[in-house]
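JOB MANIFEST
job_type = single_chain_structure
chain_count = 1
residues = 238
[input]
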Amino acid sequence: MMRFAILGVLVVASICATAYGHTDLTPPQVNALLDAGENVVIIDVREESEFCDSTYTPPGHISGAINMPWNSGYLQGHYGELSPDDSTIVVCRSGSRSNTAANFLDGVGFAHVFDMLGGMNAWQYETVNCVDSSVPGAGWITTSGLALGPASPNPFKFRTEIPYAIPAGHDPARVTVSIFDARGRLVAEVMETDRGPGSHRVVWDGTDTQGRSVTSGVCFYQLAWHGRTVTRRVVLLR
């Protein structure tokens, strides 16, 4: 019953969006969609310094959110990396920039745009941080000690290297690195093996589970270990 209620939020909101532009969602509605595993894309339009600010309340950002800043013009220059047919939730700090950015996405043809009311100021749920000094390099995303670094190169054409780190104090355990497309569909299992604590790297060659070349676009690489996951974005250019 809950799943149908949540789906109803998207269906009704999508109808409204078609007629009137983007639709507002409250933070509890957004959290319910995420908890239900709905296929939504969250775009955080704050600047990177805000997106990764661990001193702010709440710290960091919503897990899985893509940072595409509005004020510095990144979203305006890179919105083509996103699918205009996806359900896209726009977030900022207070709700002002997200409203402007949602209007922009409406104007360039995105069909299902949602603006989170109140921004991160109103978010009372789990967040993740970008930087953890216990792992090598700045710009890593961490959750409960599990860390995922930036793919390099990004964008890439033929192969990209994905760094990750397992927290200390654990015996070797199963680790998976998976690739998903912008719609959340599994593209490839890059690695599934046992790994102990420390820093590690794995390479994705841009092919799917059948060894076929993946077409250009935004993909997401996800690190999974002991029931914890960390996800980041990578762009494939053919």
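[summary]
Residues 141-236 form a domain with the Immunoglobulin-like fold (CATH 2.60.40.1930).
Confidence is low (pLDDT under 50) at residues 1-7, 14-20, 131-136.
exit_status = 0
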